[in-house]
TrEMBL record:
Organism: Rhinopithecus bieti (Black snub-nosed monkey)
Name recorded for this polypeptide: FLVCR choline and putative heme transporter 2
Region (Disordered): 1-23, 210-242
UniProt feature, compositional bias: Basic and acidic residues: 210-222
Subcellular localization: Cell membrane
UniProt-listed InterPro entries: FLVCR1-2_SLC49-like, MFS, MFS_trans_sf
Organismal lineage: Eukaryota, Metazoa, Chordata, Craniata, Vertebrata
Comp. bias regions, Low complexity: 13-23
UniProt GO MF annotations: heme binding; heme transmembrane transporter activity
Gene3D superfamilies on file: MFS general substrate transporter like domains
Length: 242
């Protein structure tokens, strides 16, 4: 029982919600990003083998296709980041880009063996634009869901998820290509991208960081000033009218 002379010493501070595991609240975003990044790692690793399978002697162009994927992905990451910063539509943007990644992967899968290398350049570049453009969206979305946990923790967990899926997908797809060909191997990735898109659709968009920023004293003061300025405008107009 608490002594009467020093009651404050017995008061235990409430446990902060941030003391819970960083997985809580943001664990839904780890698997979709891991699936997307893992598919990208597997595709990048096995790209040379797939291109040479259908286009023998085109080692140089296989490297150029990989460069096209990287450059298109850089452009996609920049554009998606700018859009997300302006719109703040985290789940909607993430889901749309994920679905477009799946569409690009499907188109690449069924056009790889057409015999036209320029088609592969276009489809691979389009796929890289959305697949790599999704990565910064996924990291930002996870940071929103895991707030107030450190962004370094969520980024580290996302990287672990991506590396684990990347290893699994690279080994599995390599075995499928060796035994059945490139199309079944790419369909294998399409199935998991479909799963990732479905998981993204069920993520609850609890944007904790955005809510915390709106509740800061600076933002509240700015909102009060805007409201006061708005309320003063009709008064000034009425005085001028009189």
């Amino acid at each position: 029982m608490c002594p009467d002379l020093h009651p404050p010493k017995c008061v235990q501070p409430p446990l902060s919600s941030s003391s819970s595991s960083p997985l809580k609240g943001g664990q839904e975003a780890f698997a979709p990003l891991g699936l997307n990044a893992g598919a990208f790692y597997a595709l990048s690793t096995l790209l040379n083998r797939m291109v040479i399978w259908h286009y023998p002697g085109e080692e140089v162009n296989a490297g150029r296709i990989g460069l096209t994927i990287v450059i298109a992905g850089m452009l996609g990451a920049v554009i998606s980041g700018i859009w997300l910063d302006r719109s703040k539509t985290y789940k909607e943007t993430t889901l749309v880009v994920y679905i477009m990644t799946l569409v690009g992967m499907v188109v690449y899968t069924f056009t790889l063996n057409l015999g036209h290398l320029w088609v592969v350049f276009i489809t691979a570049g389009t796929m890289g634009f959305f697949m790599t453009g999704y990565l910064p969206l996924g990291f930002e979305f996870a940071a929103e869901l895991t707030y107030p946990e450190s962004e370094g923790i969520s980024s580290g967990l996302l990287n672990i998820s991506a590396q684990v899926f990347g290893i699994i997908f690279t080994i599995s797809q390599g075995q499928i290509i060796d035994n059945y060909g490139t199309k079944p191997g790419n369909i294998f990735l399409c199935l998991f991208l479909t799963l990732g898109a479905a998981l993204t659709a069920f993520i609850k968009p609890d944007l904790r960081r955005q809510k915390a920023n709106k509740e800061t004293p600076e933002n509240k003061l700015q909102e009060e000033e805007e409201e006061s300025n708005t309320s003063k405008v009709p008064t000034a107009v009425s005085e001028d009218h009189l």
